[in-house]
Amino acid sequence: MKISIGDVALPGDYCEEICEVAEKSKVIIGPGLRKEADRVYITKPGVLKKRSPCTYWVDSYQKRYVPSRGENIIGVVVQKAGDIFRVDVGGSITAALSYLSFEGATKKNRPEVQVGDVVYAKMLVASKDMEPELVCVDSHGKKGRLGVLTDGFVFKCSLNLIRKILNPSCPLLESLKNEWPFEVAAGMNGRIWIKANSMRETIAVGNAILGAEYLNDEEIKTMCNNIAAILAGHVS
Amino acid sequence: MAANKKPQLPKSVLDMKFMKKTKERIEKELENTQDIEGLYSNIITSEMRHASGNYISESSFIYCEDLIEGRLSFKGMNPEIERLMESENKKYNSDEGSEMQKDVSDDILCKKMDSLKKRKWSASPGKCEIKRKKNK
């Protein structure tokens, strides 16, 4: 069926608007879209979205992570195999993380990573037919925000929620950031790691994030205010 | 397709004596490309050649939705991360904000550069003369 931007799309539908734009300029077709013959077909059920100037994608509900290049993820080290660590990222297979791809690591100076550790890493290679590969450094060899996550609390959620809270227009982190000290790492694979000073605060951040999934911006703001009030002891 | 053809040396230049090697190389290249095109012409269709066209496929949402970095720290929980966030924010703001404030306005710069240029032009012949004198 022919559909347009903003419509609910099902796999097999096609969009002619994208083709028309593509005749004049380059277009970026994101997840859920595929160019086949002379049409752009939808491959995931969801809502067809557009961002100016010409980026199109399907916003679909998904819990299974499919690795793709450049994304930051939270993984759990499940095995040490020679010079790589195998990391569970929630994908179809484990990802490989070389022990040399940590800041300051050399052949003699191995990083201290144990089985069971949680790492925040970047997808370097993610192709259909190969094991994905992770790194914990940027192209300058600096660790930046990546590396082993110590302490804290990890929980899973849908991939949509991660995208929702990381959207620059989302008020969730904006309204929580002045309430109490906490640290958060959100992996595009649907895992969130939180660290705060006390258990109460950690749970409060976790509940705020999980509660935000089906709320709109206004509701998120009031929810954050409520949580902050409860935590501060104004309301019991 | 004609527009993005490689620039070629004119024939008259290639006929010169010292261009012999280059001429041979170009002829060889031409032969090679023609061979390849001939070899696979029955497999590669024109459709395949123009398949990608104007479409760039991107498998990740982070570029589509312009998401922020996922590692954040607030109120001094992890000073290292907060320093990174701050420096990134500064960069972002300076990009968005107006241009850098100027100490010297464009007009003054223009006049100054003009006068500098004139001085250079007038100075350079003088230097040459001095050198010549020294050579003598």
From TrEMBL, chain A:
The superkingdom of the source organism is Eukaryota
Residue ranges spanning the membrane: these are none
Tell me which UniProt keywords the record has, alphabetically: Cytoplasm, Exosome, Nucleus, RNA-binding, rRNA processing
What Pfam families does the record point to? KH_6, RRP40_S1
Name the GO cellular-component terms.
cytoplasmic exosome (RNase complex); nuclear exosome (RNase complex); nucleolus
Q: Where in the cell is it found?
A: Cytoplasm; Nucleus, Nucleolus
Q: Which GO terms describe its molecular function?
A: RNA binding
Could you state one GO biological process linked to this protein? poly(A)-dependent snoRNA 3'-end processing
Could you tell me which InterPro entries the record lists for this protein?
Answer: Exosome_RNA_bind1/RRP40/RRP4, KH_dom_type_1, KH_dom_type_1_sf, NA-bd_OB-fold, RRP40_KH-I, Rrp40_S1
Asked if Cytoplasm is a keyword of the record, the answer is yes
Q: Does the keyword Glycoprotein apply?
A: no
Give every K Homology domain span: 152-198
Q: Which family does it belong to?
A: Belongs to the RRP40 family.
The UniProt entry, under PANTHER family, shows: EXOSOME COMPLEX COMPONENT RRP40, PNAS-3 RELATED
Q: What is this protein called?
A: Exosome complex component RRP40
> Which organism is this protein's natural source?
Euphydryas editha
From TrEMBL, chain B:
Q: Which InterPro entries match?
A: MPP6
Its BP terms in the Gene Ontology are: maturation of 5.8S rRNA
Protein name listed in UniProt: M-phase phosphoprotein 6
Q: What is the lineage of its organism?
A: Eukaryota, Metazoa, Ecdysozoa, Arthropoda, Hexapoda
